Amino acid sequence: MPRNTHTILRPLALIGALALVAPLAACAPRDDAATGTDTMRVAYLSTANYLTTLKNERFAQDELAPATVEFTGTYNPADARTAIQSGNADATSTGTGSFINLIAQDQPWTAFAIEYYDGDSQGIVAAPGSGVESLEDLYGRTIAIDAKGATGDYIVHQAFANAGLDASQVTEVEMSPSNFSAAFGSGQVDAIATFDQNLASAMTTPGARLLVNAEEYGNLNVSIHIVAQSFAQEHPDLVRAMYRALVEESDKAQEHPEIITDAYREFGASEDIIDQVAKFDVPEILPIDQNGLDMLERQAAQYVDFGFIDAVPDLAGHVMDCSE
């Protein structure tokens, strides 16, 4: 795959409306003497983001030395966050929308890297035999999503809003992504709104139809890497080191995208799914600098419009700019 260079754009009208209420957190300089016995524990997910694929590299260990890094998994995002909250891990990954929801609930998280892609790995797929050929055909029908306010819900609302349609005219069914394939193939739902390997699985199902992908409607919902806020405060040097390792892994993947497909193969994905995943945009690690924060705040404004949250939360107080 060719390397894709991504730029986060900021509409001027929203910049004025979303004034920052706190400065970006800075990454403190590294103090090796103070961190020699520290460990950063990563709860990695069953999706091939770079915090997951790093477990197969030496980048993280080299960057954190003399501290160490431990990878445990695989987790779904909710269980990974529970592992951190219970003190069994320090870092994991989630979607930017889920991160916004967490901060809106006053939960103690700090995001330190955005994993940006153009959106072709998110979308809505009509089930075989459903007769659905367009988004409007889904009025009065059912769409499977992962959870209210999460990525699937965002996909539905953003896709319908972009098409000038009313998302309230469809019935969203929450279910675990592990149940998507069975529900989709058996006709339990008329469509699914999903991402990554689940989208690839749906797209390769005989008789299914891709109705829209996020690249077509202006995608803001991407992956983000997070740590417990207490860990960021106590070990900013380790967070900064992990950011550098993520950048190195991202740079390598631009030339060797098999890093991603090999991970899905390791997770047991079929070759049909892997072939479809190989067609998706190769993500790039970006810092949560001013541009990154603006992007998060624009998505938070969409979450307010969709009724997912009441107000744009203080995201600036929960991010770390490790680009300097």
Automatic annotation (TrEMBL):
Keyword Signal: yes
InterPro entries: SsuA/THI5
Protein species of origin: Bifidobacterium phasiani
Classification of source organism: Bacteria, Bacillati, Actinomycetota, Actinomycetes, Bifidobacteriales
PANTHER family assigned to the protein according to its UniProt record, in alphabetical order: ALIPHATIC SULFONATES-BINDING PROTEIN-RELATED, TAURINE-BINDING PERIPLASMIC PROTEIN
Signal peptide: 1-28
Subcellular location field: Periplasm
Similarity comment: Belongs to the bacterial solute-binding protein SsuA/TauA family.
Superkingdom of this protein's organism: Bacteria
Keywords: Signal
Protein name per its UniProtKB record: NrtA/SsuA/CpmA family ABC transporter substrate-binding protein
Sequence ranges assigned to domain SsuA/THI5-like in this UniProt record: 71-258
Coiled-coil positions: none
